[in-house]
């Protein structure tokens, strides 16, 4: 039985009318490795006009090792926390009272990442490091009148290096391009409809070569795969169109809300896993297609 403790404090002040400064620090202690961690962070916001502001933020962050890693091997109890340094610049502009545009760019440096360089044992080390960066754009229309909508685009890259001689590779969830557009319309107090289309670059997965007849036995033909690069290729791109209809009925102080929701309406196979089949040497694409759901909730 061990204790992990953390506390956070923040101070906010405005030295000038258009400036706001946030200063904070987070302290944590991990009884597994008996280490103390101080993580400072801060931000500056400046209001250019009543409808426009920019902000700059920077900070250091620590991630506690996962509990299953800590207990997998006695040596893992001495693992240090993973460290990340964040730098963020953002711009916000209210184009109308109900319409907002935001742009944000960021850069992140990762150190002391926990890696497993030898798959034959459960020992981990803090040998890894990495780098990430990107740009987020969004245009948001708040729900005013009968309509709301939102459009988002993100470009990002995220690389890791285990320092094992194999160089950098894509992080597990690195998807360079993500785009979505959504909207909703309220016909009256009873009926609403909403829709969303989303696209994303496929997630990284390992590159490999296939070896046939690994037992050298014509009567028992089997295949194997040899991984040649960590996250060296990608799964097919993800895209889906979703639609939802809501109906609300007020009965005194009780409201009955029913909904019908169709995810992936045009039934595209979004692959989230490729399973290698030893019998034929092929990959079995696993994922989801159309998913209709419906239900009702009671509010009182």
Q: Could you characterize the architecture of this molecule?
A:
The chain has 300 residues and is mainly β. The chain has one helix at residues 67-70, and strands spanning 4-13, 19-30, 35-49, 52-63, 82-96, 99-115, 125-144, 147-161, 168-170, 177-186, 191-200, 204-211, 224-234, 238-251, 254-263, 270-276, 283-288, 291-299. Strands 1, 2, 3, 4, 5, 6, 7, 8, 9, 10, 11, 14, 15 and 18 form a 14-stranded antiparallel β-sheet that branches. A two-stranded antiparallel ribbon has the order 12-13. Strands 16-17 form a two-stranded antiparallel sheet. The protein is globular and about 70 Å long. It starts with a strand and ends with a strand.
Order of helices and strands: EEEEHEEEEEEEEEEEEEE
Give the number of DSSP strands. Answer: 18
- What Rg, in angstroms, do the CA atoms define? 25 Å
**SS summary, helix count:** 1
Which runs of at least 5 residues are low in confidence (pLDDT < 50)? none
Describe how the helices and strands are arranged.
Elements: E1 4-13, E2 19-30, E3 35-49, E4 52-63, H1 67-70, E5 82-96, E6 99-115, E7 125-144, E8 147-161, E9 168-170, E10 177-186, E11 191-200, E12 204-211, E13 224-234, E14 238-251, E15 254-263, E16 270-276, E17 283-288, E18 291-299
Antiparallel strand pairs: 1-2, 2-3, 3-4, 4-5, 5-6, 6-7, 7-8, 8-9, 8-10, 10-11, 11-14, 12-13, 14-15, 15-18, 16-17
Brief write-up:
With 300 residues, this protein is an all-beta fold. It has one helix at residues 67-70; strands at 4-13, 19-30, 35-49, 52-63, 82-96, 99-115, 125-144, 147-161, 168-170, 177-186, 191-200, 204-211, 224-234, 238-251, 254-263, 270-276, 283-288, 291-299.
């Amino acid at each position: 039985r061990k204790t992990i403790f953390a506390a956070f404090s923040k101070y906010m002040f405005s030295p000038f009318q258009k400036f706001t400064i946030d200063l904070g620090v987070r302290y944590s202690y991990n009884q597994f490795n008996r280490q103390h961690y101080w993580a400072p962070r801060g931000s500056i916001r400046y209001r250019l006009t009543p409808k426009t502001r920019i902000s700059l933020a920077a900070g250091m962050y620590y991630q506690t090792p996962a509990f299953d890693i800590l207990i997998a091997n006695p040596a893992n109890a001495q693992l240090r926390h993973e460290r990340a340094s964040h730098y963020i610049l953002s711009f916000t502009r209210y184009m109308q009272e109900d319409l907002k545009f935001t742009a944000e760019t960021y850069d992140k440096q990762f150190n002391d990442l926990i890696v497993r360089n030898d798959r034959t044992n459960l020992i981990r080390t803090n040998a890894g490091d990495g780098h990430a960066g990107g740009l987020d754009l969004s245009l948001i229309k708040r729900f005013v009148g009968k309509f709301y909508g939102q459009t988002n685009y993100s470009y990002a890259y995220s690389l890791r290096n285990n320092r094992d001689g194999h160089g950098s590779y894509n992080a597990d969830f690195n998807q360079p391009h993500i785009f979505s557009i959504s909207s909703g319309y309220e016909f009256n107090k009873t009926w609403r409809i909403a829709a969303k289309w989303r696209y994303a670059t496929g997630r990284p997965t390992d590159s490999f070569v296939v070896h046939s007849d690994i037992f050298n036995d014509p009567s028992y033909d089997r295949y194997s795969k040899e991984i040649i690069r960590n996250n060296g290729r990608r799964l097919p791109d993800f895209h889906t169109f979703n639609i939802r209809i809501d109906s609300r009925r007020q009965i005194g102080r009780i409201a009955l809300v029913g909904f019908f929701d169709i995810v992936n309406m045009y039934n595209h196979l979004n692959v989230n896993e490729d399973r290698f089949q030893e019998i034929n040497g092929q990959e079995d694409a696993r994922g989801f297609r159309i998913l209709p759901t419906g239900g009702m909730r009671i509010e009182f």
